Every structure is written in C-alpha cells, then in structure tokens.
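Researcher: For the record, we're logging two predictions in this thread. I'll number them. Prediction 1 follows.
Model: Prediction 1, sequence and structure:
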Amino acid sequence: LARRLQAVEAALAELDAEPSKVKAAAEEAQVQEDEDDINLARWECRNVERRLEQ
C-alpha cells in the first residue's frame, strides 16, 4: 500500500510539474465527448430520415 501511495504521489508531482499534460488530457476527453455527441446526432438524423422515407 505504501508503494502504491508513493507511485500515486510521484505521478501527481509529475503532473504538477507539467500542467500542459493535464490540459492536454482534459482537451482530449472533451474532444471524445464532442465526437460522441456528434455520432448520436447523426444516428438520430438517420432514424428520422428512415421514418420520413416510409
């Protein structure tokens, strides 16, 4: 447990030293969320188009 705690603290210290990595990770997560929203909108649009064709 102590080794895991030291590893976590080391990782946090590394991220504190490089805030650009944290920002990049947050931006990547936001991009993925946006892509998920776009894919959902496309799926809904296709369903509406299919209903209109019937």
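Researcher: Logged. Prediction 2.
Model: Prediction 2, sequence and structure:
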Amino acid sequence: MYNNGGMFSTDSYSTVRGVDKLIPVDVYLPGCPPKPEAVIDAITKLRKKISREIYEDRIRSQQENRCFTTSHKFRVGRSTHTGNYNQGLLYQSPSTSEIPTETFFKYKNSVSSHELVN
C-alpha cells in the first residue's frame, strides 16, 4: 500500500494490516488467488519447517535426563561370603499383592547407582 499522506494510513480501521500482526504465521502464500506453484512451494516450506521442529524436539528430549518408574522395591544386601553387594530390582504388581515379587536382574559384584540408572 502506498501512503501519500491522504486520508488512509496504516493505523486506520479501513486498511488491512498483515495477518501476522494478529496471529502467528508459519508460511506466507502470495497471490489472490495463489498460483498452484505458490501453493506447492508453501506446502514444501511448511513440511520442512515441521520436520526441522520435530528433529529439534527429538534432540532436546534426548539431552534431558528422564527417569521412568513403576511400582518397585530396590533391595541392597551385603553378601557375607564374598563381601560384594547383591543388588536387585523387585517388581510388585500394583493390582494384587498376592503375586510374588519377581527379580528382573541381579548383580553379584559392586555396581554404582549411576550404572543402574543408565
């Protein structure tokens, strides 16, 4: 729009401002009506933007330290014969307490808590 100082200005209610001033815009699609080539180009740009955001979110989530847990008991006991620690992760079903606990893994040697988490 060309403003020569007449009765229209960009702050007037009678002029149409860019929609990006009101809502967030990802891709601009020029033309009224837009040409098919412009539509294809806009869709391609939008797909690239979405894939880039998905990749960045995946990288960001991998960099965070996350821990997931279920109902479990952790038992550390010292072996009297070898002097090493016997560590096991025991799972108890949250629905019934009659089910015996199952040992998922056991270590016969000394293991740091960092190695158990990772």
